[in-house]
Design a protein that fits this description.
heterotrimer; A alpha/beta; B alpha+beta; C alpha+beta; A: Rossmann fold; two-stranded antiparallel ribbon; globular; C: alpha+beta; Phosphoribosyl-aminoimidazole Synthetase, Chain A, domain 2; 7-stranded mixed sheet; 22 helices; about 25% strand
Chain lengths: ~220, ~325, ~725
Amino acid sequence: MPKLSRSGKAAVIFFPGSNCDQETCAFLNPFYQNVDVIWHRDRFEAKSYDLVVLPGGFSYGDYVRAGVCAARSPAMADVIHFAKNGGPTIGICNGFQILAESGLLPGVLIRSELGRFDCRYVSLKNTSASNLKWQVPEQVILPIANTFGRFYLPDDQDSRLWNEGHVVYTYESQESISGIAALTNREGNVLGMMPHPERAWAPHHAYQFGSRLLPNGSDL
Amino acid sequence: MSQTTLYEGKAKKMYPLPADVSGYPDSCWVQEFKDDLTAFNAEKKSNESGKGACNQKISSRCFEFLGLCGFDTHFVGSLSATKQVIQKLNMSPVECVVRRVAAGSLVKRLGIPQGTRFHPMMYESFFKEDALGDPLMAPVHVPVLAEGMTPQHLNILEVLSVSIFSCLEVLFQACELMVVDGKIEFGQDDAGKWILADEISPDTLRLWTPEGKKLDKDVFREDLGSVVTAYEEVWKRLSDVNIEDLASALKKGLSSKSLTLQCDVMPKSGVLDPEGEAALDTTSTEAQISHITAGKSFRVTYTNVFTGHHLKYLEHMCQETFSNPLIQDYAIQLCRS
Amino acid sequence: MSLSAPELQLISETLGRVPNDLEHRIFDSLWSEHCSYRHSKPFLSRYKATHRFGALGVEANAGGVQLSDGQTVFFKIESHNHPSHIEPKEGAATGVGGILRDIFAMGARPIVTGDLLCFGLPDQDAWMRHLIPGVVNGISSYGNAIGVANAGGATRFDARYQYNILVNVFALGVRSAQNVIDAEIPQALLKNPEDLELHIFGCKTGRDGIGGASMASETFSEASVSKRPQVQISDPYMGKRLLEISLTLVQEKLVVALQDCGAAGLSGAVFEVCAQNKCGATVALDQVPQRVNDLKPGEIAVSESQERMVAVVHKNQRDAVASLCAKYDVPHGVMGCLDSKSEIKLLFGEKVESVLDPQFVCTGHQSLYTNLSPSDAKGFSSDAAFKYESGTQSLKESAEGWSASLQGCSREWIVRQYDQHVGGRAVLDPVNHPVSVHVATPDFAAHSDCQTIVGTRLSLSPEWAEQYPYVAAWSLVREAMRQLWVTGLKPLGFTNGLNFANPEKKNVIKAFDETIRGISEAAVHYKVPVVSGNVSLYNASEQNEIPPTVAFGAVGEGRLQHHPQVVNHYPDTLYVYELASDSDDVHQTALDQMLKNLGEVAPTIARGFFSDLKPIWQGFIRWMNSMPESWTGNLTSLTRDSILKIGQPVAWIVTTEPLLDLKPSNGVTMKQLGVLTRCFEKQNAELKIECTDGAIEILDLEQLKLTSTHTLTERAQLL
């Protein structure tokens, strides 16, 4: 095993119905000294953390709209404050939906082109001119598993996203999936992505690109 | 919807703020209450000195109370015994009539005994036009009668009227009067927000004591005696009510009249609607359905009286949680089932 | 209501009067076939012979085996056939929910689910075309939301299931050594039973599924359409919260016993806990959290509202349990407490609705059915030498026919709707691999060198099981053992879902007996226990009856670093070998031994193909069609008989590196058949095959793959 340098603290917010929290913690463990799980109803000292992660899953059963109920949780007030003050924040899958519903990222995630749940590996391509504050690889292969993963903004606002450096990754020419896969905000400290890096980093996973998407991540 | 610098109706007149009156925003004007009395579509006319002043002070107290309950009203302040300062609005031509008990023209129109109680309250919209005799208005009449208004506006006015009426019931119940029925009117500000306007007085409400004595314009209609005496009685009772405490208690929830509102959420046209498309796919071509849109409905039940504060919060919920304005539209209406 | 006249008579005699509504519902549910295994218990006793090989918790919610790292793995198969035929989405979803609750009721975290489905043919049947996506949607929507990775499974399309589809679901969970719990209460605590309370938590109780347990015990008829309101509604969001609460309760030692509310609702749970622990209880039915306020006591007792658990909690822990439920917004109620009497008193408010003896309620009816035993079942002998011909057409025609058939085509449309990676434990890419492997260590980041892996092999009875039930059953076991071996895993335990038609018919009960005999004898032969299972009978209708169908699961363990390197992007070359045994040992033990050795020493096996259930050639073509990349290759000295027939003592092994220094064991010969090379031009993807009889054929692999991908979606008109 290569030598790992662990530093800093990461927080993973756990909503009722989040189901990727365990592997997200395992994913962060090699790079962060402490990984704390925060219950959605609890307020927390966000500024003492170096990274806040909203994990994947079906928070509140995806009821009403994916991510909307979670976005109104008490802990989100601290997450929003943290993110607005430049704190690195990552939302994965359902976490991306929560970031969009809480206004930290533009747009909304709607039903995919395929129309049903789809689980497979996708190839992503980095758009080199994004605002994202940390380095990420140009091309990655990661698994997706979702129904409501299609990013949407009305056309006039959508083109602004491209011009203003919000788009981090797009899906690379494959069947029945296209468009934006990962997005950042204007300041480049918030990253929302539909694919799951926490399912592609360990030696037993089919691919290991996941850890290179973290702010202080690298190849394991 | 009308906007005039001078307006005179049967019981009131409106005009711009006089030059010597200061301290009020430009968007206001004066509403003056007259002593004239009219009934039966202006067939019966009279005049009683002091009636205007009665209605002004009753109306301002009611509006003050409703403001404390969280409703937006046009009332800014009283200027004199018969004059008050109100916000200029684009008035809606709809008369919103809410009834708890059958009285007046309804008795004959529907053929039901006077005194029949309605649970829940009965709401009707009437189009304000003397020449037509203020006809009953259905949503389908809206585009014909009122340009610029939509059937959805009637739904909003119904929600507002019913909730305002139930707050008025509580107010008058506190001074042992029963609100039998009432007519209210609304206008819109430049932002399109609906605001309670006109007046609330014994001219526009039917008020009965527990013994069944009438203290409203029916005294004039049925020649039951002095109108001003009856109206002063109402004022006396009303002035004894601590409206701040009452509004505060209402906000926390006072009685247990339950109310259910429905918030319908539909995808914006042009946004991908795979559910609607899937539903359309299942229909046969013989059915000749050209389009299906799939949305959802939230029924929100309140078990306490519903005030303006509650409505504002519900609007907030609709915009923030029930619908995402990027891809969905919402509409609130009273739940009828 | 399915209580028979003799049953009603026995109840009335025992109670001293006619049963009231509450009692009638309780007996109707608990004595129905679904709950009491009325017909099958005598036959299932054969499995006891296998338990000595390491079975744990056999009588509990789910059986298990110990892993070498000290953890326990629990697994089970459950059926939800009848409800799924009526309302496919909810029927399948509640099936998944139910089996997951069985797993976490053992204090184990579920990490894998799977499903074995049997449908009729979709071509002319609109209802079947509605059932197929409905069932898949049900499994997918529940499993994905609750967050347990799907290992795949098996799907069969056969006209014999046209009026009775089968939906069997599998789940596996892992429990650490410290967290021990099940429905058995420690003796020390039973000394003061009054200190032990009965709690219920989960969804509020409503009218769902009233009569569901007895529905599962009746055959279908025209009246089935009216059974719709009886199907229960699932809620994976509540299921997930129940999972977290249950695991926390066990970990923090806040509960003494845990039981899921399954068939027969809370009465099933309460009566079984008391019967098992030989104690009594007082239950206040009105204290159960309810969704509507006009439920009768009988309805509360047998309602099958989903997502509910019953727990035995020491009174000192009551507040801790209540606040844990409150944290997750999960309704919770204290509905009674235990006592040392041998009766359960059911109250509704002040009124005592009934007093019943739990032993009588759970087992009283057995006295009526002592006359059915294995030896009673008469029928054909099936130990005769097995010969099953599957045609001697050209290999090319066989490949084309197979790829275009519903049996052999790709199941991608189904499998892509399941989340295979949630939890992060899936090793590599489990899609399309016969054995789905998952990391079982709790904190799989920390010890990536010596992590325990568990592998699951799920399979269905072969099509010919109807004629040869014993051989089919044995073959299921053998094939699973071989798949686990070549994946480098040590087989630990089996589970089975036994789906049969009307047990009152002699041919059915005989096949039932032969099937169980086949599985149990094979299990004893391989020294692996059958730890759990499920029986579903009466899968028949006026029109037809299903063939004997076993949903079989085999679980093995291994070490991550010894797992064969089946990488997602295959290497550029694959080597194909054939192993053949020349001995006439009917159990093919020489070949078994060879495969076991191979798995232990050669970590480069990509695939193994065996002829136990279907011809090797069919398995091989199915695998070629499933690969995302294109290949080209050359295979020589193929013997048609070996690869087109079933039951041959032959195996194919595909490796990622040549097996150079391997010495085959006694009685087994090994030869290399050829090589497959990765090709980057689709049009070059072809396979050249030469048989020992001199025939040479060329297969267009791209065309086969295309056919295979579209067959299911076209024939079932799937979107």
